[in-house]
Amino acid sequence: MIRLALPVYVELLTAVVAVGLIDLLWVSSLGEAAIAAVTVGTTVEHVAYGMFLAVPTGVTVLVARRHGRAPLAPVIRTGWLLWAALSLALAVPGVLLREPLAALFTDEPALTAGFLLISLAGLPVYFAQAVVDGILKGLGDTRRPMRHALICNALVIALDPLFIHGLDMGVRGAALATAIARVATLAVALASVVRLRSPGGGLVTGELIRTGLPMSGDFLARDLVGMAQVALIAGFGTAAVAGYGIGQKIMLAGVMVFYALRQAAMISTARSGQAGSPLLLGVVAGALVAAVLNAVAAPVAGWFTDDPSVLHPAVGFLRWMTLYLVPFGGLIAVGGVLQGSGRGGRLLAATLAGFAVQLPLAYGLSAWLGVTGVWLAMAAGAAVSLAGASAPRGGGPGHARDRAPRSTRTAAGRLSGR
């Protein structure tokens, strides 16, 4: 588990967290409106990725199950066909609707719309990289996806100052630097899979979508709730949104530990049915991440801004996240075994149950406690989701647990103590 998870953590940290942090650091000198624009823009991009996530997740699980047992070509071919269809379906409407979308979340929509024009137009490249990495992870190779992420991150570090300040492109420069870095990285990554040869024809569209859809639904639900939170926090002013954006970016560096454990558990379960103790690992990781974030909250947030009106909400967010991170770490790690064993629907149901508690509570408590009420609601929702995902549950003949391979059913049963 840990051997698989370490490269995944580095990959996620560099590809998902560090790229956003670098953009945010370079635009922070342009003011709170620029910070808010990047925050909203990256949130929208993550929602689009959530709609696509079923494809790389399904590819990873099916390649892992078939490797050495059945032809891989149908899975890979289906993954690329779905990539083409979803890239077109998401990128084109996103670009056309960027201005009304930006107006929903910020007082200065022109900046956010400029970021979205470039980032959403580049979605096909972002999605293609996910498919390539999904194939490699299914083969048990988490190191090459890590290298691809490091290449992309290095390019963003080099290009961001050039486009944002050197060419005076501001927020658009941040989006363009990231897009160019992703194109170059994809060119390198494709060489990793183009040599793969596997006999067998046909498509596995239905199986791939059914396998990946619960993870996509889980991710999409989280991002949609995140957008709802941005809208709720926006009612407390642009400074509150900027502070939340900074705090969230810092927290993601720790949260990626949980997602690395989830991917490792998913790959291990799909390949061999063995996944260790993800619940324990997730909860311990949550406690450790919370402790580190409390220790570094003020100095790290100070890297992004010296404006007290932005710094204070950012630090406050990180302090309150202690209550959220422990149950959230356990939930995310458990999700890998559920997904890899064919029980992803249970993870999605638990996630939705938590959000059914979180959102009404956030609106109610925020009217009384301000943004602190939103943070408390997040903790309550995560606790409800963890209880739903980890509690023992029976299943009849039609339950997904009974349709999963025997080895993966064994791992899933071990998770819940049966």
UniProtKB/TrEMBL annotation:
Protein family membership: Belongs to the multi antimicrobial extrusion (MATE) (TC 2.A.66.1) family.
Name of the molecule in the record: Probable multidrug resistance protein NorM
Gene Ontology terms: cellular component: plasma membrane
Region described as Disordered: 390-418
Residues that span the membrane, as ranges: 12-40, 46-64, 76-97, 109-128, 149-167, 224-244, 279-305, 317-338, 347-368, 374-391
Keyword Kinase: no
Function: Multidrug efflux pump.
Keywords from the named record: Membrane, Transmembrane, Transmembrane helix, Transport
Transmembrane is among the record's keywords: yes
One Gene Ontology MF term: xenobiotic transmembrane transporter activity
InterPro entries listed in its UniProt record: MATE_fam, MATE_MdtK
